[in-house]
Amino acid sequence: MQRRARYIALSFIVLLALVALYRRYSPVLSIDRSQVELEEPPTPSQNSPPIRKPPQIHTVNTDPEIRRRANATFVMLARNSDLEGALLSVRALEDRFNRKFGYPYVFLNEEEWDDEFKRRIRNIVSSDVEFGVIPKEHWYQPEWIDEEKARKAMQEMQWKNVKYGGNLAYHNMCRFNSAFFFKHPLMQKYRWYWRVEPKVKFYCDINTDPFVSMEDNDKVYGFTLAVYEIPATIPTLWETVQDFMEKHPEYIRTEDNALRFISHNNGRTYNRCHFWSNFEIASMDFWRGEAFTKFFEHLDATGGFYYERWGDAPVKSIAASLFLKRSQIHLFEDIGYQHDDWGHCPQNQEMWEAGRCDCSIHGSFDYSPDSCRSKWDALGV
Q: Region annotation Disordered: residue ranges (predicted)?
């Protein structure tokens, strides 16, 4: 009987020891759950850190460092059929920049927008979005264009395999992007724009606001890539520019312009270099100003947008190079960007790391044979 009592006592001691060990190494299970469920949360004191709510979808960061925003918008020219490409571009731009800064978007189309396009775009952006239809007088060729002459010219360009030479819609687009996008009613309330194309990539985080930076540093036009224009698209463009320069010397900046970027012989010929305008951040005050207005009217009167295939990129690049101080044109070295086969990747290692870039520094287009980057570097801006 005594032996049985000793076994019971020993078993009880072992059980107590096991319970003690279990509580020691399983502290979570030793909490009194009744207290957890019934205990009131502590009242925060004046010195307690604020309780942060989880971020909500489509809210804009209110960090005091980025609270100041410029009067600016993104603008994309697209069609309903460009939806998937537009989503790729906007998604990348939101992830790399705009989810933090919250700038609005304007989408422009020569036709009415599909509800599906609007619904899916609005679902992924962090800010306001507006969809506009381009007025017919801004998109289609003007009445004074000789339709038969234009048709034959486009047919000949198509036979010669001039890129987009036979595509009337492309001619319309080039003219629209040269002088009409900033006249659209939805764009009137803005000063700055960032042009975005469907199906582009942004390789790096953009941690500072390019609009505010340009505003604070007297910049007017910003780019990432510079390329050569196709000679067959602009046979008479430069002689038309020279004619304007002779008739309107009052608009030409003489000493501190960027003429050396577009000409190696002081303007006698055009070297075909231009800023690749599918990415550009610029002030619409410049395009709306008297100098560019007169310049475009002079070029447009020749019919070169239809009898040849003048692109908006050389037209605007020439204007910026002649009318602006070269210091007012800015290369966005830190913005990693890809359009079609050509891309820019920051060449500075620290900049590349700071932007968490996923592009190859050595694979950048900047110093390839088709690039005009070295011409820009030679200006020493």
A: 37-63
Number of Cβ within a 10 Å radius of residue 127: 17
Element (H, E) at 304: helix 304-307
Q: Supply the pTM of this predicted model.
A: 0.82
Q: How far is CA 260 from CA 28, 220, 236, 269, 375, in A?
A: 73, 18, 20, 11, 8
* Given the residues 112, 137, 148, 280, the one annotated as active site: 280
Would strands 72-77 and 105-109 be described as parallel, antiparallel, or unpaired? parallel
CA angle 96, 100, 103 (to 5 degrees): 95
Q: Catalytic residue at 308? A: no
- Give residue-wise pLDDT tens across range 229-265: 999 999 999 999 999 999 999 999 988 999 999 999 9
> What CA–CA distances, in Å, run from 278 to 86, 89, 218, 230, 339?
13, 12, 22, 16, 8
